[in-house]
Amino acid sequence: MNRFDTDLIIAGGGLAGATLALALARVVPSLRVTVVETFPLSADALPEHYQPSYDARSTALAWGSRLIFEELGLWPRLSEHATPIRQIHVSDRGHFGATRLNAGDHGQEALGYVADNRWMGLCLMRELLETGVQWQAPAEVVDMTPETEGVRVALKRGTETWSLSAQCLVVADGGRSGLREALGFQTRNHSYGQNALIANVSTGESHRFTAFERFTDAGPMALLPHGTTTRAGHQSALVWTLTDEALDEVLALSDPQKCQRLQERFGWRLGRFTRIGECSHYPLKLTTVDEAVRPGVALVGNAAHALHPVAGQGFNLALRGLMTLVEQLRQAVEQGQSLGDLQVLGRYQRLHRQDWQQTVQFSDSLIRIFGDAPAPVAAARDAGLVGLDLLPGAKRWFARKAMGLGGRRAVISKPGVARREPAGHE
């Protein structure tokens, strides 16, 4: 008889939680996994034909993330609406420095991809419906109590409350995790004093599958190619960094005025900005948790670390962390250890820590180097961009960081399948 109601509970069924559930179903199918999600599940959310809306929000997927989704069997479906990034152009507004990365120079068809968040969620849900993963939705995890070799998790749906016992609880409910605070995890926050404005835009010139990273005296902005997977279009996903005052000014403008302001900051590399969609925004801060695991509980994704979006590394870092956790849980099952054993979760934290520290340092240093700086510093960074464009070794290092291949990536082992190193892994 099973001692627990379920083996592992995942609090949060978003991209991180759903990916973790699918990976566990693929790699350790014997585990009983329960996902608790606040939004209800409905068959209406699984249309036969997907038509992206103009205002759909998207995520940048590094090449390394594609390799992970290939291992999970998700990429063939996901790639149907994933726009390739074949070039990256990095520039410093008002200065001569620039560098260019090209996928062909690294023997790949793309440096990364841009995918709608909703499409990714639909792909994950369709795959999960074919597994034994159980769902409690709508519901939320409100508390957790340690027990002998496991935990008891309190759940709530409206006025109804109940509990489930499990070996381990994984908190995957995002950067604004209320459960993380309720369980007493201490976060460290560094505010950048800026906001990210997110919108989709259309331009007179085709993006030619190029992502633009533009550093300005008011903060960085990024334009990621969006739309069709085979024909270079005119739509891009915008991430625009603004101070509080500048954000209020931009939000008060009409759409044509927003396009004009964006034109002034970005320039004419994509021709005239002709349309800007619905704008959303959020404050930018670096959030880390020193100790992301305790006996019986682990934080993953944005609940464990939230980065500045300047380098597009947030979800890619989270995905690598999820695969590291899956591998440690697989080994625990093989060795007869409890999933919530601190030795098991501690190994996950130690293995993932180096990756997130390097990624945080990479993203944070870009903000500091390309922030408002004296003339000698500005000249040095421009010379650095030119040098990066000319020196193959430095350029390859930068490209690997952008492709999500610079950090440690767990190679998951499926039952009955020998371990292998995927292409592009070092």
Automatic annotation (TrEMBL):
Transmembrane region(s): none
Pathway noted in the entry: Cofactor biosynthesis; ubiquinone biosynthesis
Signal sequence residues: none
InterPro entries: FAD-bd (IPR002938), FAD/NAD-bd_sf (IPR036188), UbiH/COQ6 (IPR010971), UbiH/COQ6_monooxygenase (IPR051205)
Domain (FAD-binding) ranges: 5-362
UniProt xrefs under SUPFAM superfamilies: FAD/NAD(P)-binding domain
EC number(s) recorded for this UniProt protein: 1.14.13.-
Coiled coil feature spans: none
Keywords of the record: FAD, Flavoprotein, Monooxygenase, Oxidoreductase
Catalytic EC class: oxidoreductase
GO molecular function, one term: oxidoreductase activity
Cofactor(s), by name: FAD
Family under the similarity heading: Belongs to the UbiH/COQ6 family.
NCBIfam families for the chain: PRK05732.1, Ubi-OHases
Protein name: 2-octaprenyl-6-methoxyphenyl hydroxylase
Organism: Marinobacter albus
